[in-house]
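Late entry, written up from scratch paper. The run itself happened at the end of the previous shift, but nothing got recorded in the book at the time, so transcribing now.
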Amino acid sequence: MIPFNLTQLCICNIIKILEDNYIAIKFNMAANKHKNKISGFVNSMCYHEKKLKFRLLTSPSSLTKKKQIHKNLLRRDFLKLGFVVTGAVLVPFSAMAAFDSRPRKVKELTFYNTHTAERLRVCFCRNGKYDSGALIKINHILRDHRSGDIKAIDVQLLELLHAISDKTKPQAPFHIISGYRSPTTNKSLRKKNKGVASRSMHMLGKAVDIRIAGFSTRQLRNVARKMKGGGVGYYPKSDFVHVDTGRVRYW
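Output as recorded:
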């Protein structure tokens, strides 16, 4: 007789290994999906194995035919085990990759306006959808504090800030030195400082000057540069970093 019990024991051990691997990655949804597929595949294997065994034992066919069935069944068992072992090795890694790269369900940002002392912590994106109410609040705290003018802030800038926050101090607020600037304000600042761009990205709601308390602006600049999400300017004397969603450039 073919050692069916040995085959089943191997399958059970492999399932146990799979379960341990899925626990190790905190039952992430992608892993569970793969686990269900593997479990269903193994259950299907067991069903067909029992069915073939029953046919083998009850069939009135000749001994030669029975031996041939034995050989075919053994070959199938090894092929099935090969697939399961491959799944046991590969699935945890693919599931972990899915866990790492999956979209964040909740994206939050925290701000502190250095001119008005206003604070805001808000979830601006949930399940891939932007919260219009949250965006209005962000537009307000990043307004031109000189004129009171408000402009919609580019959501790509918010995504960039969120990515920077994840790489620095996620719970710490961004200290806002300058958010949106009205054309009038930008013109006024340019008269005092020729370093202010005449076509500043601030006027488009696509730039912000920031710092993070307890985190050096030099390090902040380095993190922002690695994002390659747009322009990054470093102002060590004024202790802030400029980031925008224009073309990638550094100064």
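The longest strand covers residues 106-113.
(Scratch paper discarded after transcription.)
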